[in-house]
Design brief:
alpha/beta, 5-stranded parallel beta sheet, globular, glycosyltransferase, glycosyltransferase activity, signal-anchor, Exostosin GT47 domain-containing protein, Exostosin
Length: 492
């Protein structure tokens, strides 16, 4: 079996956090707000956590000094974050005042965000459009990420770029390729993206650990053994190296550090170092709240399968058809990977191929349409969990213009601190699989059309660009990390 190509820069040599516990008052040490600041309202989706389920980001953390160097956080770093928190608060208050007058939308006059978008649609899809816009602009203006230089490919500074774990490799590659801007440089778009990375750790708000769990599995794991000890050892060794060479880990116990993994074993690999697992920001595709994912501290990353380095041409060659040109109520094709899919296939496989086509893996090839043509001709696309909660079908459905139906328990959806998933998707608990068709048929046609409009609007957040562009998946992932950094202080 051929190995997937790698992405590497070295190949040649809320504010609730649902923008809810993010903006906090000035304080000392690692500080947690005593009262949530309701910048965004929580989702009503059964898949999304409620505010009560969102843990305090820095609960139980303590700062401590490490060996060598100044371990204090530069005052300018926290002052920048204080200014951002205040700006986002002001935007959120404006939104709340406007809620009593009209539809509650606050126009930003920024064409890259809301030009040509119906205000009611904007207000329904985003938890608070004004707060998100202000937070995103503050991120572009201020946010600085330091990438540790320690380590060498293929385990570090490298990752897959053409398979189901491709976001892991793409994120590492894209962040490391960003050149810090020239002194005094200004601008937006690509220029603003480049400004995220800094080579001066004293200016950094967060520190990135650029190892790839997918690469660890590829090079250090012995197939068939299910022995993950080598992965845990590699993570532990990397953290120990950066902690011994730099003061930054020890001053925060890892609270301002983040890793990113799209491998199923990413959560387990983080257990290799107790402080990383307990205190760090873990950006994960396998965002399962029943297995320890913390929506207020960790980041849910979309799982995107880039088979040949990009989205399938069938999903990008032409605009998605309208609801009136979609004869199928819903569609699914896939293998029996785990309990959820087994239940789905057992209840719905082959029941009504004219309206509700559900195939087991490979069977759709015998039909009159290919896989992506089915998606483009269905109003709803079923996205059940596999062996783990995340599925690349969610993003494929968005690109097909099809309303995703999230069939899962415990999946913390990507970017849910900003997006109202209930406005453009349907959440169905696993226990309701026998009622799946009844649930979907009960949604009025006008509501389906509104959901499809929402899908078209959020597509930009689930698109991979090279180089990265505003509001794409790279920047939305960074924005999620930014929100979590806003959620605590590291003053001493």
């Amino acid at each position: 079996m051929a190995r997937p190509p790698e992405c590497s820069r070295r190949g040649a040599s809320i504010l609730t956090v649902v923008l809810f516990t993010v903006v906090i008052a000035a304080g000392n040490s690692v500080d947690v707000p005593s009262q949530p600041i309701e910048l965004l309202t929580p989702s009503s989706s059964p898949v999304s956590p409620t505010p009560a389920q969102l843990p305090s980001v820095s609960a139980g953390l303590t700062t401590r000094s490490g060996g060598g160097g100044d371990t204090s956080t530069p005052p300018s770093v926290e002052r920048e974050l204080d200014a951002a928190r205040a700006a986002i608060r002001r935007a959120a208050r404006r939104r709340r005042r406007d809620l009593g007058h009209g539809d509650g939308n606050v126009s930003t006059a920024d064409s890259w965000f809301d030009a040509g978008v119906d205000s009611a649609l904007l207000a329904s899809v985003y938890r608070n459009p004004a707060a998100f816009h202000r937070s995103y602009r503050e991120m572009e203006r201020r946010f600085k990420v330091y990438v540790y230089e320690e380590g060498e490919p293929p385990i570090v500074h490298s990752g897959p770029c053409k398979d189901i774990y491709s976001i892991e490799g793409r994120f590492i590659e894209q962040l490391e390729l960003l050149a810090p801007p020239a002194q005094g440089g200004r601008g937006g778009g690509v220029a603003a993206a480049a400004g995220v990375r800094t080579l001066d750790p004293a200016r950094a708000h967060v520190f990135f650990l650029p190892f790839s769990v997918a690469q660890m599995v590829r090079y250090a794991y012995r197939p068939g053994t299910y022995d993950k000890t080598p992965l845990l050892g590699l993570v532990a060794d990397y953290v120990r190296v950066v902690a011994s060479r730099h003061p930054f880990w020890n001053r925060s116990s890892g609270a301002d550090h983040f890793m990113l993994s799209c491998h199923d074993w990413g959560p387990e690999a983080s257990m290799g170092h107790p402080e990383l697992h307990a205190n760090g920001i873990r950006a994960l595709c396998n965002a399962n709240t029943s297995e320890g994912f913390r929506p207020g501290q960790d980041v849910s990353v979309p799982e995107i399968n880039l088979y040949d380095g990009g989205m399938p041409r069938q999903l990008t060659a032409a605009p998605p058809p309208p609801a009136s040109a979609r004869p199928f109520l819903a569609f699914f094709a896939g293998g029996r990977h785990g309990y959820v899919r087994d239940q789905l296939l057992r209840h719905w496989k082959g029941r009504d191929m004219e309206v509700f086509p559900v195939f087991e893996h490979g069977e759709h090839d015998q039909g009159r349409l290919d896989y992506y043509s089915y998606m483009r001709r269905a109003r709803f696309c079923l996205c059940p969990s596999g062996y783990e909660v995340a599925s690349p079908r969610v993003v494929e459905a968005v690109h097909a213009g099809c309303v995703p139906v999230i069939v899962s328990d415990g999946y913390a959806l990507p970017f849910a601190d900003v997006l109202r998933w209930e406005a453009f998707s349907v959440a169905v608990p696993v226990a309701n699989i026998p009622r799946l068709r009844e649930v979907l048929e009960g949604i009025p046609a006008a509501e389906v059309e509104r959901m499809m409009q929402g899908v078209r609007l959020v597509k930009r957040h689930f698109t991979v660009h090279q180089p990265p562009e505003r509001l794409d998946v790279f920047h939305m992932t960074l924005h999620s990390v930014w929100l979590r950094r806003l959620n605590f202080r590291l003053d001493q």
